[in-house]
Amino acid sequence: MNSGQRRKVIILGSTGSIGRMTLQVIAKMASQFEVVGLAAGANISLLREQAVAFRPCLVSTSQDNIAPSYLDDFNRLGIRVLTGETAAERLVSEIEADIVVSAIMGIEGLRPTLAAVRCRRRLALANKESMVVAGSLIMNEAKHSGAEIIPVDSEHCGVFQCWQKEKPENVRRVILTASGGPFLKTPLEELAKKSVAEALAHPRWKMGKKITIDSATLMNKGLELLEARWLFDLKPEQLAVLIHPQSVVHSLVELVDGSVLAQLSVTDMQLPIQFALCYPERGAMLLPPLSLSEVGRLEFYEVDEKRYPLLGLARQALEKGGSLPVVLNAANEVAVAAFLAGEISFPEIGEVIEKVVTSHAWSQVESLEEILTLDHETREKAQNLIDQRA
Q1: Domains along the chain?
Q2: pLDDT in tens, 11-35
Q3: How far apart are alpha carbons 58 and 82 in whole angstroms?
Q4: Measured distance CA(253)–CA(354) in Å, rounded
Q5: CA distance 186 to 205
Q6: What is the DSSP string of 36-71?
Q7: What is the pLDDT of residue 172?
Q8: 2: pLDDT confidence band, cut at 50, 70 and 90?
Q9: 349 CB burial (10 A radius; 0-12, 13-18, 19+)
Q10: Ramachandran category for residue 120: left, alpha or beta (phi over 0 → left; psi -120 to 50 → alpha)
Q11: From 378's CA, which of 68, 108, 216, 348 has a CA 20 to 30 Å away?
């Protein structure tokens, strides 16, 4: 890290929900952080606005071509532009930075995340899918390069903070909490009638569409179990999930003597983002503090897997490892996209994923090429199932 000067930050997925919130945090802490690179997808208009506001030296878009008017705007600002499928990966490698915030949604974030680790950047990790499908590869690369990985997911950030207080051998179990999403108390027979808008109406968090649907199915918690396994070097039996509707306790760490450490905060992603940027220091308070008297009560329930069957599938992937997490993640991304497009109903998300996962012949996958090939094949299989239903 730089000492006595602003830390240089690259944001991968700057136009997404976590990317936008990261820029909000940096705007409040402008004396401590400087944005040097922004990577976006197709939202070039918002990328231009961000570039005007933060003046990075380099921006990228996954689009192969962008309108000449946008190029002219970036040129006037003195900002270089990279385009195409590998643009974010190249951006990470071409400019110096202290911190890379990995917030590109889905497996598309894998290559630039790996690039950040190989370049020995601090990785503020918000792209859980990368760790789900390539956790072993990423952790090995981080060990080799000396890169530091700080989780941005609120649950893993909570575990990380509790973890600092104890020796790893003192940890018996890690418990991630889940809000239960918008359908926590919806009768099961009514789920097929639920619209996209209703599924996106999360009771506690403001997030992107894909992760909000994952929260409604509880797949997000399944993916977080897989992520936590690699981040904290845990065995499957050391990981658990509890429903916690208030979303105030983000995670719990149970110790061998029965003591339980918990991390609590208001439900706002600015806090884990700030923590990842500032660690090991603590930044000044950006939000009103948590008031437990206003919260009133904290509830915890076991997960009903009849309501959330995808958590069981995620546990299978956690226990068997190998190719199964790759297949689970790919099928989920395709099924969620189909639901958001109105092609399948809410319960059919789980039905499609289950068919893909149960028909898969397990194998060992280790290289990036093997992972990406299996991901592509699984997406085709899942889309074929969806097309047949249509």
Answers
A1: 7-151 (3.40.50.720), 156-265+289-389 (1.10.1740.10)
A2: 999 999 999 999 999 999 999 999 9
A3: 8
A4: 31
A5: 19
A6: EEEEESS-HHHHHHHHHHH--SEEEESSS---HHHH
A7: 97
A8: very low
A9: buried
A10: left
A11: 216
